[in-house]
Structures are given as structure tokens and as C-alpha cells.
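Case study 2.
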Amino acid sequence: MYKVFIFAVAVIATVTCLPAVNDDEPVEKPGYCRFGNVYVKEGERGAGPIGECNIYNCESAKPGAMAVSALTCAEFVPAPGCHKSDYDYTKQYPNCCPKSVCPHDH
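Prediction:
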């Protein structure tokens, strides 16, 4: 049984009109924002590439520029006797987010 106290739901960062510089290549698909090897359609949201624990909202995808917002994992304090796991950067969001681990859960 998980007992978690959530103090902050998430951290939101907004980046506007950045040049599409992932790997120094332009946006290859018109109407899509590119995050490494992941493409998100304009107006939609999708998990970022493995190694980045974020979900991205592609607000605008114009040639040479894109407007995006990013959401990362919620902050929490585990219940007494439990601990917070590390990020797992081998997985995409939200599976990469820290979890509450309690000794009696094993």
C-alpha cells in the first residue's frame, strides 16, 4: 500500500519560439515539434525522448521555430519509513518518475 503526501503537483516550464536545434537539424516534419528523435504534432502532447523525463505540449510548429511547454514529474514526500526512488532515465515519462518505495512493498 502506497502512502504518499503530495506537496506540489508538477513543475511547468514554458519555452517560446526556440529555434528547432535538436541535433542542430531543422524541424523535419511540417506541423510537428521535434524533441531529439520524438515528434509531437502541433496542438498535441507527447512524452519526450528517453533520457528526458518530460512530457511536451507542441503549441506551435513553424519552420525554424517552435513554441512548447514541458511538464515534469510531481514532487512528493514519501510516507514515514518509505523513500523516494531515483529517476529512471531509461524510460519515458511518466514511467521515469520517482516512486515511493516502502520496505513492506517488496
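The first strand starts at residue 4 and ends at 8.
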